[in-house]
Automatic annotation (TrEMBL):
GO terms for molecular function: nucleic acid binding; zinc ion binding. The lineage of its organism: Eukaryota, Fungi, Fungi incertae sedis, Mucoromycota, Glomeromycotina. Coiled coil: none annotated. The keyword Isomerase does not apply. Keywords: Metal-binding, Zinc, Zinc-finger. This is CCHC-type domain-containing protein. It comes from Rhizophagus irregularis. Gene3D superfamilies: Zinc finger, CCHC-type. It holds the Pfam family zf-CCHC.
Length: 181
């Protein structure tokens, strides 16, 4: 048994990972909180490492600090656990998909909810923007426009600027690049 790498991606369970860290280090006799902190942070990669590099200066130890926000264990679980949020988002997305289907059907585009979800997974924004949904007069258009905005924001969270290396914006939007010119 060894400590697995934590990437901070969908499907990873931060509580399970922190438990594995503690069990493994306890098994080999490491109980010092600062030492656990130092070892645990070396097992962060990808999104989790980038998050730690941004937030890490505010984190003091693994799990002993009186202030919860200074504990790596607490902050990781807080950052990467999304049980209630996911359920709320799921319901909201299902409702939005039903409304999209209704709008598209009114405009003569016959599509199932599963097909809409497929389009979302493969670039729904472009698909919708390629259609003339702006011409549809319906109060539900506002929801469709919001969904497109949400999708754009989700996509933006995952992009990384090639100029400055930060997440959340494209090269053409980079303030560092604009300041150089």
């Amino acid at each position: 048994m060894e400590i697995p790498i934590f990437y901070g991606i969908i499907g990873e369970n931060p509580e399970e990972w922190t438990d594995q860290v503690e069990k493994y280090l306890l098994k080999i006799g490491i109980e010092d909180d600062k030492r656990i902190f130092e070892i645990a942070k070396t097992h962060l990669l990808g999104n989790a490492l980038q998050w730690f590099e941004n937030e890490g200066m505010c984190i003091a130890d693994w799990n002993k600090n009186e202030i919860k926000d200074l504990r790596l264990k607490y902050r990781l679980i807080e950052e990467y656990s999304s049980t209630t949020e996911v359920k709320d988002d799921e319901d909201e997305i299902k409702e939005a998909v039903r409304k999209i289907k209704k709008i598209l059907n009114k405009s003569g585009v016959w599509i199932t909810e599963d097909e809409i979800i497929g389009k979302i997974n493969f670039g729904f924004t472009k698909y919708v923007l390629g259609m003339e949904y702006r011409n549809i007069k319906d109060k539900d258009c506002e929801i469709l426009s919001r969904l497109v905005g949400v999708i754009r924001n989700i996509k933006k969270k995952n992009v990384e600027c090639w100029t400055c290396g930060k997440k959340g914006h494209y090269v053409r939007e980079c303030l560092d690049d604009q300041n150089k010119n």
